[in-house]
Amino acid sequence: MDERAATGPTLPRPNPTSSYWQDPPHSLANHRTTSDLPKSASVIVIGSGITGASVAYNILARHSPISVLMLEARTVCSGATGRNGGHTKAASYRAFLDNARDHGEEEAAKIARFEFEGIKAIHNFAREHKIECDSWEGETVDIIYGKGQWIRARKAISEMRRILGESDPAAQYKFHDAAETAEQYLVDGALGSVSYEAGSISAYNFVIGLLEFALEKGLNLQTGTPALSIDRSGSGTHRWLIETPRGSVEAERVVMATNGYTAYLYPPVRSIIVPLRGTVAAQRPGRGLPKVGLRTTYSFIYGNGYEYMIFRPVGSRFAGDLVIGGCSTKAPEEGLYEWGTTDDTTMDPNIGQSVHESAAEYFGSRWGEDHPDGRIRKQWTGIMGYSSQGFPLVGMVPNEDNLWLAASFQGSGMVLCFLTAQALVTMMKGEEDDGFNTWFPRTFRMSEDRLKHKFHGRLHEKTPMDLEFHSQL
């Protein structure tokens, strides 16, 4: 793992696998607000995914007029946000015991509430601003197959209720035994399941909506313009100089919203923020599944990994489709070779085949025959970013005045990024107060200490719960 973690990321590569969410591409896909690259800006935001778009929107909503330039290496929202599985799901109980042990009960509670509020915030914003992004709010279920995971889930949720309070919205979970799981969720062979509030969304369309608002407020968006390097300007004005293939541009402040690609621009975070390639497929449901469609989203949790799955809601394009991702640990070496890569132009055939088969395997005989047009509508990959401690890195880079970072969202960007962007802009304005510290987790903040913690293995991902459970027996 050390070797994989130390692999230097590349720039986003041209001609990535075709994502379901970006087909067809929006009219903003290749947008350039001005034909020429500006020579300077007050703020440069690098990356046009959910983090970059939310940062730009929040800056322009709070500071007007101010010049904000966004640089995107490829097309709009062509990175992880536009290549995800569509889930707005926290599963906060999965890491709660670790967080309480390592960072204290108060911080663990703050993280859980932040994740829950992140889900509510993104759906509320979409609804209030009438963004057409197939926003759906409802129930999700975790189908649990391992005894250790089942026992630990019950313990974690009990602790969440004790610490957060029985009535806290972030601590609302329901348990279902094996029989209830089979009857309600159409899955046999599980020990039980846990249901709770979650949702789904077209993240690509949500970001398009955010960018349209930001463009109205004066954002200069430049696609096809990768940032090649970040250096101090030679002008002696404490400004930053960004080199691109189309020329250089100066700025007072720079925000890296670059997630798994961050170490390309800022090498000191190599082995601190580690890319992981994920695989996702959009599938036509089997003919045996309910014709009215599924009523919940899913995760299928087993010994050393999990899969996640949403259904496309009524009224959306391809309503009823299943979007499922994961399966990396089912590959040889448990998918070790997927760490450290930033190549989303291709797909590992072992993982691709597992994703292809997984939904039908979980539903078993209830799946029925495949759709006559075939099971797979589209299959693709995307690049996530992970840190050793399992948290994002957010704030000003230590000893780098006005170089800001919001990255490493652990595959949970649609839960974490929207509110994290609001927090980052608050930091940039110097408006942090006691109230700010009550809702934004301190464990997410950049520090010199966090840059000492290198990524060493999958346990830091906080998902294979059986491993730690057995170590405590």
Compact summary:
It is built from 12 helices and 17 strands. It is globular, with a radius of gyration of 21 Å. The C terminus is likely disordered.
Low confidence ranges: 458-473
Instruction: Give the overall form.
Output: globular
Series of secondary-structure elements, N-terminal to C-terminal: HEHEEHHEHEHEHEEEEHEEEEHEEEHHH
- The value of Rg in angstroms is 21 Å
Query: What is the tally of beta strands?
Result: 17
Q: In DSSP terms, counting alpha (H) and pi (I) runs of 4 or more, how many helices?
A: 12
Residues in helices, as a percent range: 25-40%
**Amino-to-carboxy terminus distance:** 27 Å
- Main beta-sheet annotation: 9 strands, mixed
- Share of residues in strands: 15-25%
Mean pLDDT: 93
Summing up helix and strand content along with how strands pair, one would put the structural category as: alpha/beta
Describe this protein's structure.
This protein is of the alpha/beta class and 473 residues long. The chain is 30% helix and 23% strand. The protein has twelve helices and 17 strands. The protein has helices at 2-5, 50-62, 93-103, 105-128, 147-164, 178-185, 203-216, 262-265, 349-363, 413-428, 434-439, 465-471, and strands at residues 40-46, 68-71, 87-88, 136-144, 174-177, 192-200, 220-222, 229-232, 240-244, 247-256, 273-283, 296-302, 305-311, 322-326, 376-387, 393-396, 403-407. Strands 3, 4, 5, 6, 11, 12, 13, 14 and 15 form a nine-stranded mixed beta sheet that branches. Strands 1, 2, 7, 8, 9, 10, 16 and 17 form an eight-stranded mixed beta sheet that branches. Strand 1 (40-46), helix 2 (50-62) and strand 2 (68-71) form a beta-alpha-beta unit. The relative contact order is 0.19. Mean pLDDT is 93; it is low at 458-473.
